[in-house]
Amino acid sequence: MASVILSKEQGRQIQAEFKRRGFTQREVADRCDISEGHLSAVLVGRRGAVLTLRLARDISLATGIPLSRIMPSRDGDREGA
Q: Can you give the CATH number for the domain in which 61 is found?
């Protein structure tokens, strides 16, 4: 799976994880070298804004959130959620 469009619920869960770990969306975007607007679009599942494996890995490295909690599994559910 190279890229996916997140559901709103998946995006909300990732955003909640940012907050639990003390990160703002802007901080995560800066650490991933992307705009906050693009990260927001990905997290709300805006059409054309996909979560790529590379971005998921960047988010994981920037925040310490396990990749399996960011990138949906093949059946559409995030592992370990």
A: 1.10.260.40
